[in-house]
């Protein structure tokens, strides 16, 4: 922390890109590019050796600077014998304008002596990197996606042995960066077990900061679901012992657009709703098994949508119309859980742990507002999130029979999330005693009493003119 | 103990306890009536969902949302640029705000009580809630009518008559048709206010009380703010007073109540922007003004009667009468000629001449609820009350109190209007319920009493034996005849409830936005095409996109799709509607010119041919033709859409005007492709389009952008003008020619290829 602050200060004062010192050398660098989902995942297995003269306790992991704002998730683990331990990783705040690479500082659990090595795995996912080419297509035409990345390790350290594997593609081929150009001859890949493999390059040394662009085009007959904004409201109710969830989606599809207007007759005759194609015909929400989910509703801005069904443990929502590329569909879905499945009582406090996302499969989120509505009279103590949030907002909200201070709404705003983060838990700690619980009833009863008294008094008044 | 027994076997209950029992019973009956009234209106919510129904309610809902989100003054000054493009609509000044204000006040009050209920639910449930108030008002009205007269209903059956009228009103289909949950229309609250106003009026005439007549005018004001049908009150009350004057019933009670009501009511009604100066200018309001003047003259005459000698008085009266009549008629004519008084409106004329609208104003005639009422509708909407109604009126004639005269006048007027327009059945229903309840009350008063029989049976043992046989015989005959009548009427009452529930459930509980159907396995299937297409528009078009459709769908597009429309159900501008009608009726080339001038982006048509939905645009097409023919008779001619033999055909044998019209093409474009190589079948009109013909229907200036799942809604986009300045139709024709040549060439080349291979 101190170091990064110091770095920040340096960065600001010198107005210069931060460059880590080249104390490491990547002895073995194994990069896997996963394109099976609607976003991109990369897995880097690095074996690095300390070539400096002093023990090092930090390794700087570089990613291309233009990717930095798109990164949804980055986790680094130490590849030890028994089980991987998660390492403390934090982005290096710097003036990134002129730097080709952006860095994450990975703090090692112990300083590594010169000449000794360690093994590290970095996994990260980033969004908004797959685009259809061409951008429009006729109904039923195949969709081709385009990906642009870096073929080389893109590390601030020299790499001596390197391999790149691209998985999840049917028939990928390298394409020129811009039309007319040739595909670069350097480091050709080959198809191996349905994946595209480059290397391993054992003899060549990839100098630090070396960068060769990689452009891939591949066919994929699947939508690229995207959520512009998701509002998730958790309503806590101790009286009814329920936890209600209401989610408002601004749903869209980033896949190929229709070249012409949507023709129902072609859609019907082609039976596209049965075939894999870039339009979204159903939204699948897996529900957590063994946790009761009741009273499911599915509506949108014009009312109830009658086409939803449970298939095994999945909630299948069928939108009003198939969602083609660039079409939008806003909807609301909600249900009730039993509170005891989510809340634990620790001494006089309540600890509520809920998933960060409820997972539609294979989707990217631009913005997520996660709210907790604590019952009236509850005192909010703390919130803990495994993912960094942009803002935390606590405000009262008045709901049914909130005649005193209202529900407490705690809103966490996240940006750029992917569906794989659905298992992460956000924890809210609050205080809500039995006394608080009954206070509301007394207030309500008091108001009723006053109202009845007023009616009684009113009937006693005499307005007649005499 | 609750009761005590005396030595002689009589049961004694203290007066206080009896009062308590009566109160509990009264409250219990009211609660049950309210429950019956509200719950029978909830079919649609339970079967479908809490949704706004039909067409006009969508506008009311949208306006209510505007009022809730903005201040009241913003609402009154609301200029809506999302309708009637490019004209816009001065919405705040052209609506009756009562309904919206009512629901927003309820919304605000509930919110203040800690119940922040969604405004949509308040709007949906407003009509059922008010229906239970209507039942209460009916109770009071019937009580008031029967109160002062023993001849109409006896004292002890008064209460049961009043309760019967309340329950009749609560569940009569004639009223339910306009007040089911979701039917968020002016009538939903107007009927309640109508009944309260009439109750207060009857009461104020009886008491001559300024307080009650001021209350009457307050409710009259509420009525004016809520529904155009307030004119009914404006004419009924003066007519009542006029008839009373003719009967020589003038007294200061009538004078006080009428003048108070007229002055306060007129002044207050002028506060509604949409009404403004109509109460002193419109002919619809002249009768109330006339009666007001007449009352002053009668008062004067009354004064002279007591001061002058009888001869002088009669001479003066004759002179006075002639002068006043002449002056009055002359003033009316000159004022109308000078334009000081607004001319009679078309809707007014169509009230007196049922064929007037059909000839002169097709736009009024095109609305189904403005059609004359078929006979069956009376039975359908009122069941057995319709034949009890004349009996009730006859009972009112038994003792002509002021209240009874009011009921008689009301029955006569409402019967006439209900016969002219289907929708005015609504104003007939209350008086039918009052008269029906009086009849049933009277019948039960005479036939459902077995006290005599029972007491005679008890006395029998004490009587001598010879007279015993005779009296027992007559007793039994009497008993059986009484029982027969009672049982048959109890059956009718049961049947009434059954019928009302059946009608409500089957005829009046469909939201019409969602259609219910059945899957092959018997489970319910909802056909939700309207919302599918409206939601598509809302989600996937530019926010300022302008959608052209027939005016029926204007309010729905505004409410659900939130897009700008050209014409809507507020049919204030006939020419604009005719323009849209013309664009639909003429061929593509002419239609393109009109649409470009209007600034159309999207076109929405309703087509039921695939699944057999009969309320589609092709069935409404003739109205579009007629309305546009009214403005452009030389360009559009209704006759050309019928074949020589006078048939309305949409298949291969349709006329050229039909085949070329934009509406026809938009409806049937690519319809043939659904059926593959078979002939396309229009399931609404049961006509067969040959496969080759159906495939030849083409469109050049517009492009299909969306069609709903069952093809009910089809959306097209007006193509942008050609970059090279070519005519889109010529481009299309050339393309088709080229495509034709190509396929010919290919087919001719094929054998050569085969040979080569």
UniProtKB/TrEMBL annotation, chain A:
The pathway where this protein functions is: Protein modification; protein glycosylation
Provide this UniProt record's keywords sorted from A to Z: Endoplasmic reticulum, Membrane, Signal, Transmembrane, Transmembrane helix
Q: Name one GO molecular function term.
A: structural molecule activity
Query: What is one Gene Ontology biological process annotated in the Swiss-Prot or TrEMBL record?
Result: dolichol-linked oligosaccharide biosynthetic process
Q: Which residues cross the membrane?
A: 441-459
Tell me if Iron-sulfur is a UniProt keyword of this record. Answer: no
Chief location of this protein?
Answer: endoplasmic reticulum
Q: Where in the cell is it found?
A: Endoplasmic reticulum membrane
So which domain of life are we looking at? Eukaryota
Q: Which Pfam families match?
A: Ribophorin_I (PF04597)
The similarity annotation says: Belongs to the OST1 family.
The name under which this protein is listed is Dolichyl-diphosphooligosaccharide--protein glycosyltransferase subunit 1
TrEMBL record, chain B:
Tell me the ranges covered by the Oligosaccharyl transferase STT3 N-terminal domain, including all copies. Answer: 25-435
Q: Where is the composition biased (Basic residues)?
A: 739-748
> What GO terms fall under cellular component here?
oligosaccharyltransferase complex
**GO MF entries:** dolichyl-diphosphooligosaccharide-protein glycotransferase activity; metal ion binding
Instruction: Set out the biological process GO terms recorded for this chain's protein.
Output: post-translational protein modification; protein N-linked glycosylation via asparagine
Per the entry, which co-factors are needed?
Answer: Mn(2+); Mg(2+)
Sorted alphabetically, the keyword list is:
Glycosyltransferase, Magnesium, Manganese, Membrane, Metal-binding, Transferase, Transmembrane, Transmembrane helix
The domain of life is Eukaryota
Membrane-crossing residues? 20-38, 119-139, 159-176, 188-207, 219-247, 259-280, 286-304, 316-342, 375-397, 404-422, 476-498
Subcellular location(s) per record = Endomembrane system
Q: So what EC number does this one have? A: 2.4.99.18
Where is region (Disordered) located?
Answer: 737-757
This protein's record includes keyword Kinase: no
Membrane-topology descriptor:
Multi-pass membrane protein
Q: Report domain STT3/PglB/AglB core positions.
A: 546-603
Classification via Pfam families:
STT3 (PF02516), STT3-PglB_core (PF21436)
Q: Which family does it belong to?
A: Belongs to the STT3 family.
The identity of this protein, by name, is: dolichyl-diphosphooligosaccharide--protein glycotransferase
**Organism from which the protein derives:** Kuraishia capsulata CBS 1993
């Amino acid at each position: 922390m101190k170091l990064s602050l110091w770095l920040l200060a340096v960065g600001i004062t010198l107005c210069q890109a931060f460059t880590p010192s080249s104390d490491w050398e990547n002895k073995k660098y194994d990069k896997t590019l996963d394109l099976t989902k609607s976003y991109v995942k990369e897995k880097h297995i690095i074996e690095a050796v300390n070539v400096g003269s002093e023990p090092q306790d930090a390794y700087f992991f570089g990613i291309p600077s233009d990717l930095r704002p798109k990164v949804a998730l980055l986790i680094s683990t130490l590849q030890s014998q028994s089980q991987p331990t998660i390492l403390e990783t934090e982005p290096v705040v710097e003036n990134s304008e002129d730097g080709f690479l952006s860095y994450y500082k990975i703090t090692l659990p112990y300083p590594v002596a010169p000449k000794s090595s360690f093994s590290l795995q970095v996994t990260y996912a980033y969004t908004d990197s797959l685009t259809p080419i061409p951008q429009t297509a006729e109904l039923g035409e195949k969709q081709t996606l385009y990906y642009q990345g870096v073929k080389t390790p893109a590390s601030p350290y020299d790499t001596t042995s390197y391999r790149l594997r691209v998985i999840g593609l049917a028939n990928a081929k390298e394409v020129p960066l811009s039309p007319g150009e040739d595909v670069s001859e350097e480091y050709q890949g080959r198809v191996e077990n349905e994946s595209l493999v480059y290397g391993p390059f054992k003899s060549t040394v990839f100098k630090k900061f070396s960068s060769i662009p990689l452009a891939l085009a591949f066919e994929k007959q699947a939508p690229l679901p995207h959520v512009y904004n998701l509002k998730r409201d958790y309503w806590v109710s101790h009286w009814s012992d329920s936890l209600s969830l209401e989610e408002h989606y601004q749903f869209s599809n980033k896949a190929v657009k229709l070249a012409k207007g949507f023709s129902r007759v072609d859609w019907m005759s082609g039976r596209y709703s049965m075939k894999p194609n870039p339009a979204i015909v159903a939204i699948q929400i897996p529900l957590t098994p063994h946790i009761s989910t009741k009273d499911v509703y599915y509506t949108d801005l014009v009312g109830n949508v009658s086409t939803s069904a449970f298939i095994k443990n999945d909630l299948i929502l069928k939108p009003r119309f198939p969602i083609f590329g660039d079409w939008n569909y806003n909807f609301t879905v909600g249900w009730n859980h039993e509170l005891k499945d989510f809340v634990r009582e620790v001494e006089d406090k309540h600890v509520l742990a809920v998933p960060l996302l409820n997972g539609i499969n294979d989707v990217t989120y631009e913005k997520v507002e996660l709210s907790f509505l604590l019952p009236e009279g509850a005192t909010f103590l703390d919130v803990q999130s495994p993912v960094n949030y942009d803002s935390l907002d606590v405000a009262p909200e008045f709901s049914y029979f909130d005649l005193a201070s209202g529900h407490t709404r705690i809103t966490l705003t996240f940006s750029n999330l992917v569906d794989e983060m659905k298992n992460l838990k956000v924890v809210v700690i609050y205080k809500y005693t039995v006394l608080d619980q009954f206070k509301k009833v007394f207030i309500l009863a008091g108001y009723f009493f006053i109202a009845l008294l007023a009616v009684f008094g009113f009937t006693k008044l005499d307005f007649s003119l005499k | 103990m609750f009761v005590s027994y005396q030595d002689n076997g009589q049961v004694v209950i203290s007066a206080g306890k009896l009062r308590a029992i009566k109160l509990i019973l009264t409250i219990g009956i009211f609660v049950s009536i309210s429950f019956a009234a509200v719950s029978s209106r909830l079919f649609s919510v339970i079967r479908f969902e809490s949704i706004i129904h039909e067409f006009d309610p969508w506008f009311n809902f949208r306006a209510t949302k505007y009022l809730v989100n903005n201040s009241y003054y913003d609402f009154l000054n609301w200029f809506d640029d999302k309708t009637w493009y490019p004209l816009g609509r001065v919405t705040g000044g052209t609506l009756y705000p009562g309904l919206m204000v009512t629901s927003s006040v309820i919304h605000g009050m509930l919110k203040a009580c800690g119940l922040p209920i969604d405004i949509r639910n308040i709007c949906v449930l407003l009509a059922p809630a008010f229906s239970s108030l209507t039942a209460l008002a009916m109770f009071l009205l019937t009580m008031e009518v029967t109160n002062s007269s023993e001849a109409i209903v006896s004292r002890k059956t008064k209460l049961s008559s009043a309760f019967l009228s309340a329950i009749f009103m609560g569940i009569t289909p004639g009223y339910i048709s306009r007040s089911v949950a979701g039917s968020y229309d002016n009538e939903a609250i107007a009927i309640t206010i109508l009944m309260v106003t009439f109750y207060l009026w009857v009461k104020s005439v009886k008491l001559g009380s300024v307080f009650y007549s001021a209350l009457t005018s307050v409710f009259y004001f509420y009525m004016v703010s809520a529904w155009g049908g307030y004119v009914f009150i404006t004419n009924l009350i003066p007519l009542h007073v006029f008839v009373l004057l003719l009967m020589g019933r003038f007294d200061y009670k009538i004078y006080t109540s009428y003048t108070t009501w007229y002055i306060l009511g007129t002044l207050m009604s002028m506060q509604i922007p949409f009404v403004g100066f109509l109460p002193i200018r419109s002919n619809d309001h002249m009768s109330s003004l006339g009666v007001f003047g007449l009352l002053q003259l009668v008062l004067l005459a009354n004064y002279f009667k007591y001061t002058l000698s009888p001869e002088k008085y009669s001479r003066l009266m004759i002179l006075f009468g002639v002068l006043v009549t002449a002056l009055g008629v002359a003033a009316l004519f000159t004022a109308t000629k000078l334009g000081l008084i607004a001319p009679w409106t078309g809707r007014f004329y169509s009230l007196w001449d049922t064929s007037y609208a059909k000839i002169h104003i097709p736009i009024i005639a095109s609305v189904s609820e403005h059609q004359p009422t078929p006979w069956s509708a009376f039975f359908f909407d009122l069941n057995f009350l319709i034949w009890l109604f004349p009996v009730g009126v006859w009972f009112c004639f038994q003792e002509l109190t002021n209240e009874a005269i009011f009921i008689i006048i009301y029955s006569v007027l409402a019967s006439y209007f209900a016969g002219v327009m289907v929708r005015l059945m609504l104003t007939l229903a209350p008086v039918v319920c009052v008269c029906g309840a009086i009849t049933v009350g009277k019948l039960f008063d005479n036939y459902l009493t077995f006290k005599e029989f029972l007491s005679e049976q008890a006395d029998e043992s004490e009587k001598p034996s010879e007279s015993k046989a005779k009296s027992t015989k007559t007793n039994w005959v009497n008993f059986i005849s009484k029982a027969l009548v009672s049982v048959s009427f109890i059956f009718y009452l049961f049947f009434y409830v059954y019928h009302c529930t059946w009608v409500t459930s089957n005829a009046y509980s469909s939201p019409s936005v969602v259609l219910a159907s059945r899957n092959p396995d018997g489970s319910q299937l909802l056909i939700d095409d309207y919302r599918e297409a409206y939601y598509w528009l809302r989600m996937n078009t530019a926010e300022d996109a302008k959608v052209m459709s027939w005016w029926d769908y204007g309010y729905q597009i505004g409410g659900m799709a939130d897009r700008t429309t050209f014409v809507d159900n507020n049919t204030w501008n006939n020419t604009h509607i005719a323009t849209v009608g013309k664009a639909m009726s003429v061929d593509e080339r002419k239609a393109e010119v009109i649409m470009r001038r209007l600034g159309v982006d999207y076109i929405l048509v309703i087509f039921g041919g695939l699944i057999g939905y009969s309320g589609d645009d092709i069935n409404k097409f003739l109205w579009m033709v007629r309305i546009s023919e009214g403005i452009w008779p030389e360009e559009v001619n209704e006759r050309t859409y019928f074949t020589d033999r006078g048939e309305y055909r949409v298949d291969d044998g349709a006329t050229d005007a039909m085949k070329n019209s934009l509406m026809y093409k938009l409806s049937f474009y690519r319809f043939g492709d659904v059926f593959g190589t078979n002939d396309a079948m229009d399931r609404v009109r049961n006509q067969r389009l040959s496969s080759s013909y159906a495939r030849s229907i083409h469109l050049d200036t517009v492009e299909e952008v969306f069609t709903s799942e069952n093809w009910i809604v089809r959306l097209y986009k007006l193509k942008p003008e050609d970059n090279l300045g070519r005519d889109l139709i010529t481009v299309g024709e050339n393309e088709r020619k080229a495509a034709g040549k190509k396929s010919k060439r290919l087919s001719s080349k094929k054998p050569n290829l085969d040979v080569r291979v």
